[in-house]
């Protein structure tokens, strides 16, 4: 979340607090007015943060980007990581996919709605450039059990950061023809 949006949400809270205090003062009920204003301020602030988070992660109504324009590049399999036969139809294990994810960090990926982002792999987590979150390797492992996805909402609800997980796992560089 950028600093301007966070500052605006904080000012909304303070604004509601002062409105409540003013109404309380007007009716000679300063403390109850203050608490009512603070309560409304917290609620509005939480709603705005949820709305902002939905925009950051893409919301629920995203559909698959056109995958035909991008060609898959072969990603070498790191030593010691086995890749299953493509004839089996089963996706490779998380270590193979994680090696691909690591190999393509810093490159531009597309969210389903078209916004571009890059990511950095820090330990066992992906850190997208457009959100202040860390998406753990375990989230990709959970999602990998359900690939391929047609749209973001196909990513299981238990997976954190579904828009980013979808964008990364469904990219031809990560799929490498496996799903």
Automatic annotation (TrEMBL):
The region called Disordered is annotated at 53-91
Q: Membrane-crossing residues? A: 12-27
* Biased composition annotated in UniProt, kind: Low complexity: 68-79
UniProt lists compositionally biased (Basic and acidic residues) regions at: 53-64
Keywords, comma-separated and alphabetical: Membrane, Transmembrane, Transmembrane helix
Specify the protein name. Uncharacterized protein
Q: What organism is the protein native to?
A: Oceanithermus profundus
């Amino acid at each position: 979340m950028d600093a301007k949006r966070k500052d605006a949400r904080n000012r909304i809270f303070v604004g509601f607090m002062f409105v409540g205090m003013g109404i309380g003062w007007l009716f000679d009920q300063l403390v109850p007015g203050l608490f009512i204003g603070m309560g409304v301020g917290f609620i509005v602030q939480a709603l705005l943060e949820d709305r902002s988070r939905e925009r950051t992660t893409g919301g629920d109504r995203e559909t698959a980007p056109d995958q035909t324009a991008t060609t898959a590049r072969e990603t070498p399999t790191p030593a010691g990581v086995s890749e299953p036969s493509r004839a089996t139809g089963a996706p490779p294990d998380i270590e193979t996919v994680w090696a691909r994810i690591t190999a393509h960090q810093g490159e531009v990926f597309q969210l389903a709605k078209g916004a571009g982002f890059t990511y950095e792999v820090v330990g066992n987590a992906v850190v997208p450039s457009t959100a202040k979150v860390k998406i753990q390797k375990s989230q990709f492992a959970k999602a990998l059990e359900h690939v391929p996805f047609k749209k973001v909402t196909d990513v299981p609800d238990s997976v954190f950061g579904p828009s980013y997980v979808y964008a990364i796992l469904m990219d031809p560089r990560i799929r490498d023809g496996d799903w």
